[in-house]
Amino acid sequence: MAKKGLLLCVCQGTCPSFHKMNIFEVLNEIRREKLVDVVAVHPQLCADDGDQFLESFLSGHQIDKLYVAGCSPTMQEKMFRDSFARAGFELKDFVGIEIRNLDTPQAIEVIKKALIPNGKN
Ligand code: SF4
After folding, report:
1. Which pLDDT does position 47 carry in this prediction?
2. In order of start, what are the domains of the chain with their CATH numbers?
3. Is 45 in the pocket of ligand 1 (CB under 6 A)?
4. Which among 62, 59, 68 has a CA at the least distance from the CA of 40?
């Protein structure tokens, strides 16, 4: 069975776009329901150390499908592409999820929709 990972990226915690939600409660809900195999929060995935984290997260946990909740999926794709290539991870196995300006229940809902597109896990 494909191993799923969810990362939550929050623009260093200083961007107002993420201040309406409780990021820990968002991740906690997803892990409590066992919708993914591993969850983590990172303050800035698009920084150099974020690149390194992505590569080690993907290979260390042997992730088959990666979900990143944070800024726009298009931006994420551009920023993470090189790290994925270095980790041997294919772009088709990545799903970016926009959660900016959402509150906790709204963020949980959009992440769940991405994880369970047809209402089935
Ligand atoms: S990847 Fe997106 S959400 Fe994360 S720090 Fe960079 S711009 Fe912000």
Report:
1. 95
2. 4-115 (3.40.50)
3. yes
4. 68
